[in-house]
Specification:
mainly alpha; 2 strands; two-stranded antiparallel sheet
Length: 319
């Protein structure tokens, strides 16, 4: 199970800000008072994801704020009344890592990326729907042209009851576009490759390929799953050096960059890569133990992808 390292002094400050005693906080997150005391003294600083989530929710804070280095910054009075509010969202580890790597690439904050995300999604979604409308109209135009070229005795066979399924399929696509069904879930006849072949995933793959920055990346995304894609290769190598195993673990979400301790982030690319490899191996061991406990010993682990591209390793960058 994933863990994260909290800042004890920030925990004390955030608890005091909410007017909670150690006993009250312990009661709210279902631990004993001694556990809170050990956290605040720094005797235990790594928390499981479930406890950290409960802690952040109770203290009305974020994981970034409670885990950051240094004392909790004082907020000016006018900052307390802000148009920005906290949003707690569950995010796939690979997507979360990508968020940090993209922020590193362009020298902006993760918050700025999240704030522009609705606009970017709107633009891409409307582009995808527009392309589908054009393609649907193109199919119908071609069918009309084909019909015009047919002899009269063939027209019924081409556009009659024998082709009712085709008409129904085009009508389903029309209804899907009108309903803004981005993944074409309302259109039947899907194969196993739905995650990569649905129109929105294909549009995203097309736009990503056109950037030239990730030519071999294919977007895989279904409506009820997290998207899968590979971006930030150069930034991963700047962070971790040329260690392809470590880069793969980060890009595929096997290891969460947010869990990297502060002293490791300040270290060299080699030390950061070593930490990532150790975390990946630990996660593998935990999964194997879980499978063994469930009598699933025959399950094997897929090797991490190695075709990440090559770039020159950069200087010491911390995420």
């Amino acid at each position: 199970m994933s863990t994260a390292e909290i800042n004890p002094s920030r925990l004390v400050a955030l608890r005091s800000k909410q007017g909670l005693s150690q006993k009250q906080l312990a009661s709210k997150i279902k631990v004993d008072k001694g556990t809170i005391s050990r956290w605040e003294r720094g005797e235990v600083t790594r928390l499981r994801a479930d406890k950290l989530g409960m802690l952040c929710k109770t203290l009305h804070t974020s994981e970034t704020e409670i885990c950051a280095e240094g004392p909790l910054p004082e907020r000016a009075a006018d900052q307390e009344i802000s148009s920005r509010g906290q949003v707690n969202l569950m995010m796939d580890t690979a997507c979360r890592n990508a968020l940090g790597l993209v922020a590193l690439r362009y020298g902006i904050t993760r918050q700025q990326i999240v704030e522009i995300a609705p606009l970017l999604f709107f633009v891409l979604a409307e582009e995808s729907l527009s392309h589908r409308r054009q393609a649907l109209q193109g199919i119908r135009d071609q069918m009309d042209k084909a019909l015009e070229l047919c002899a009269s005795h063939l027209k019924f066979q081409i556009r009659g009851i024998d082709n009712g399924h085709d008409e129904e399929l085009l009508a389903d696509e029309d209804a899907s576009i009108t309903a803004r069904d981005l993944f074409a879930s309302k259109v039947g006849g899907w194969r196993d490759s739905r995650a990569t072949e649905n129109p929105f995933a294909k549009h995203l793959s097309f736009r990503l390929a056109n950037t030239g920055a990730a030519p071999n990346s294919v977007v895989s995304w279904e409506a009820d799953e997290a998207p899968s894609f590979t971006i930030g290769i150069e930034e991963a190598e700047k962070l971790l050096g040329p260690d392809q195993d470590a880069c793969s673990a980060v890009l595929t979400g096997k290891v969460a960059l947010s869990e990297m301790p502060a002293h490791v982030r300040r270290g060299s690319p080699e030390s950061r890569a070593r930490w990532v490899r150790d975390q990946a191996n630990m996660n593998d061991r935990e999964l194997r133990e879980l499978f063994q406990s469930l009598n699933l010993d025959d399950l094997s682990f897929d090797p991490l992808p190695q075709n990440l591209g090559t770039t020159d390793a950069g200087e010491n960058h911390a995420l």
